[in-house]
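Session log. Operator J.P. requested a structure for one protein chain; no other inputs attached. Running the standard single-chain path with C-alpha cell output.
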Amino acid sequence: MRCSLSWAVGLLVVCTQACQISDDKLLDRVEQATIGYFTQFADPSTGLAREREKDRNGNIVTTGGSGFGLMAVIAGAERGYFPRQEGVERIARMVGSLETLERFHGAWAHWYDADSMQPFSFSRFDDGGDLVETAFLVQGLLTAREWLKGDHPELAARCNRLWEEVEWDWYTQGTDSLYWHWSKNHGFKMNHRIKGYDETLITYVLAASSPTHPITRECYEASYKTSDYYYNGKEYYGIKLPLGMELGGPLFFCHYSFLGLDPRGLSDGHTNYFQRNKAHTLIHRAYAMDNPKGYRGYGERFWGFSSSDDPYLGYCSHHPGTESENGTVSPTAAISSIVYTPEESLQVMRYLYRDVPESFGPYGFYDAVNLGCEPPVLDHYLAIDQGPQAVMIENYRSGLLWKLFMQAPEIRQGLDKLGFYYEN
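Structure written below.
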C-alpha cells in the first residue's frame, strides 16, 4: 500500500515527538490515558468499569476491575487530571450502584449487565458471589474510604458499610478453607478452594481483617498455603523464587493483591513479598532475553507475560513454561511491575511508545503485542489489565494508594493475625 507524503510527514512528526519525551512525561501520559478507561469509558449510568472495550456479551461491568477503577479515579483526582470533586462524584456513583446490585451473602458477582443491573454469569455455575473479585473490589472501597473520610464522611461511611456487609466467614462452608464461589441457584457446587500462591492473597488478608465476619489464621494456614505450587525455592536464571509455580506464573500475581497492600518490607518470616515479586518479574525478563522458543522481538526491551487477550488463543495466560507462550507480550505485565523493577519496566514502556507507536491508544497501551503477527498489536482493552498499570504507576511515583489502603486500621490487625509483619 502506498502512503501519501502528508501521512509520511505526520508519522515522522509523531515519531520525533515520541523519541523526545522524557521519562516523567511518558509516565504522566501513560497514567493519564490509562485512568481514562475508568472515567471516559466507564459505564455512564453505574460509573462502574466495563469489562472490556469490545465486549460481544453486551454492556458488562466488572466488580474486580471496578475496585481497580476506584483507585485509579483517586490517583487521577490527586494528579489533577480532573477536579477532585469530579472524582468524589464518580466514586459516589459507583458506590450507589454497588449498593443496588444483588449480592450473595455480601459478596458481589464477577460480572453484571449494566443495562439490566442483573448478575451476568461468568461461567455455567458462576452466577453468584465471587469472593476473589469481591476482594479486589473491597481493596478499592477501603482505599476510597480512607481518601474520603476527612471531607466526605457520609460517603466514606457508605464505603465502610459495604465492606462490613461481606460475609467472608460464610464462604468457608464451616470448614478450614475459603471457597471462591457461592450461588443461590447452585450453592457451593463449584467447590473451588482458594489456594496459593497466586493473585488471591488479598482475599485472605481482607477476610482476616473483617470486623464483622472474620476468618481465623488456621483457615489461611490450612487452605492458602497447602497447594502444590505454594512453596518453590528454586532458582531460575540465577534468581531464587521462594513462592509460586514454575517460573513464577503470570505477572498479575505480583499486582492484583498489591495495589493497596504495600509489599515493601512485607514479610511472614519465610518470604519478603517485595523481593519475591521483584524476583518473579526479573525471571520473566530473563526468560525473554533467553528466548528459548526464538520468538521475534523478545529481549530486555520487550518482555512481560500475563493473562491477557491473545492473537491466536483469545483470552489466556501465555506465561513462561506453558504451551500458550507464543510470542505475545502483555504490556500490563512489565508496566504494572514498575514498583519492583523501575528501570527495566521503563525500558519496555520507552520501546513500545517510541518503536511500536501503534501499541498506544486512547486509554493507554493496548492489551497485547506480538511482533510475529500482522498486525502486531491486538487493539483491545480490559479493565483488569488497565487498572494495575494506572495504580502501580501512581504507587511508583508517590505511594499514594499504598498509603491510603494501609491507613485502614483493620488491615494491620488482619496482617498481624495471619503472621505478617513489616521488616525495618
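Operator note: The chain has one domain: 21-228+236-422.
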